[in-house]
Amino acid sequence: MARSDAAVLPAGKGERTAARIRAAALDLFSRLGFERTTLADIAAAAGVSQPALHYHFQDKAQLWRAAMLELRAVIAEEERLLDVAADAPAIVQLRMALRLFLKISWEHPALGRIVALEGMAGGERMQWLEAHLTGPRNRRLVELARAAIAAGDLRSFPPEQLVITLQAAGVGVINLRPMMELTFGRPLDEASARAAHEEMIIDGLLGGLLAQPKP
Predict the structure, then answer these.
(1) What is the pLDDT at residue 78?
(2) pLDDT of the residue at 94
(3) What is the pLDDT at residue 1?
(4) Euclidean distance between CA atoms 62 and 83, whole angstroms
(5) How far is it, in rounded angstroms, from Cα 32 to Cα 30?
């Protein structure tokens, strides 16, 4: 019988090995996609044998879910920080959410890559992500955008498209980092590059969507 999602994250003896496997899986799934990633690839990247991998995870689908759950704490921290600003105007909360999203995307690039890959493919894995990771957060951001539009702070674009457009633009440079560095020879590890990216997205893109843009 297949293990349930509740048992996806093993505990106790061998957890460090299981954590290493999950980390390797998350990296490979985010760069190669589910279909192109093999259990042999993951075992090799984690430095374990395939029998050791199968001891912790029954199959590739279960390991994919376990790897995705590694990102739950990332999103939970963002939600906690947004809760602190719950009394602020919607446009302020939206700007804060976008700033947090950019910070998290730089620190955990696998999140943006996974959402891009599975968002294009659709299907069962995207449904799982929507239920366990991305859905509640995206709906919260859409409500903030809708409230900012109603308050006259944002131009009246469909809030769902507005939120996804901002997120896609935010992770675009991060997802295409290898291409950027190869084509233009500019390392994106520099603080100045990341600061310019944040300014471009928040002041340039989000600022251009304001009902009354800053002069």
Answers:
(1) 85
(2) 96
(3) 33
(4) 32
(5) 6
- What pLDDT, in 10s, does the model give residues 172-184? 999 998 998 899 9
- Enumerate residue ranges in the chain where pLDDT < 70: 1-13, 213-215
- Continuous H helices in the chain: 15-32, 39-46, 50-56, 60-69, 72-84, 90-107, 109-121, 124-129, 135-150, 159-175, 177-184, 191-199, 207-208
CA distance 50 to 158: 48
pLDDT of amino acid 74: 85
| Bridge partners, residue 21, by sequence | none
SS3 (DSSP) at 154: strand
Closest to 151 in 3D by CA, of 211, 82, 62: 211
Residue 154 bridge partners (DSSP): 210
Closest CA to 25 of 55, 51, 57, 3: 57
Structure tokens at 176: 């295409």
Decide: 20 and 48 in contact? Cβ < 8 Å: yes
**pLDDT at res. 185:** 87
57 burial (CB, 10 Å; 0-12 / 13-18 / 19+) is buried
The identity of residue 23, as a single letter, is A
pLDDT the model gives residue 13: 52
| Encoded amino acid at 57, one letter | F
